[in-house]
Amino acid sequence: MTPQPSAGSPSPASPAAPAARANPPVHDERQRPLRDLRISVTDRCNFRCTYCMPKEVFGPDFPFLPHAELLTFEEITRLTRVFARAGVRKLRLTGGEPLLRRDLERLVGMLAEIPDIEDIALTTNGSLLTPAKAQALRAAGLRRITISLDSLRDETFMALNAVHFPVQKVLAAIDAAAAAGLQPVKVNMVVKRGANDREVLEMANHFRGTGHILRFIEYMDVGNSNGWRLDEVVPAAEILQQINAVWPLEAVPPEHPGEVASRYRYRDGQGEIGVVASVTQAFCHSCNRARLSADGRLFTCLFAAAGTDLRGLLRTGCSDDDLYAAVTGVWRRRRDRYSELRFLATPRQPKVEMSFIGG
Ligand code: SF4
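A: This is the predicted complex of the input protein with iron/sulfur cluster.
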């Protein structure tokens, strides 16, 4: 990927661009190309969001991965080169909370050197995103950032994050990201009935005209710990209806195949919003995302029951061709369509926790 000029750094022309197309993507059994890789760099988080990592389950004694079991930055980079050879072009760094991993900008810099990679993004809760960290990530090659914020009211937000973390600090992180050139910032709001569903218009109003893109996420039955109930899901259609009644919207075509959010712009020119409707409008047909856990397992769906261990291969001295065969073999056999089958009476297996593989 061509490193993006941060203030003052010259942007070297990337000689590799034409060659990058020499690695066409592998396709799965539903002809979905492997294009996006989500890399979880830690299973730990400093929040305990009730819809993802409830503190009743992820308490002080929870057996998080010891450091020695985490992939090193060098291992992540080597694996990412292999994924790029298999067709990956876009990366998203996630967690847990990825900024808990020290010197993350060093990893961003290493990944930015991989010729085939066209885009590097980060999803964070913003709690550790200082202006200096935002600048360092941008200078290293980070292109885009998504910051989670479920409410503008401390009472609601603290109840959802369960660690008394204030709204103001996340708003400051959004400003820091924007000041560092990571614009537009995407802001993710998970909407849960009975928790923050009455604040949709308030959030929309706050981010209208800022240039940032607010995305409303349907509350999902991820993992096995959040006590998910369908009647606590606010369908995307209902959210759009609420907003459209006040600020008329129009649909925006997707920028690329496999885009997770459906996009809408305000007709009055005050910006864009998105909805991620995994529960009511499944988008498995175009899902081109693989996920790598912090301990080196490859998952082919957010709701998968198990992953394929790549760290074992890495740490027993295999070749890149062996890794490539392992990655492409898994993807070619992929059939995942959990969201399409969610309401069918298919037998249920315990799912991987979202905090383990990133959203
Ligand atoms: S449910 Fe699985 S296959 Fe469907 S869109 Fe989500 S991650 Fe992709």
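Confidence is low (pLDDT under 50) at residues 1-21. Residues 278, 283-284, 287, 289, 301-303, 336-339 surround iron/sulfur cluster (CB under 6 Å).
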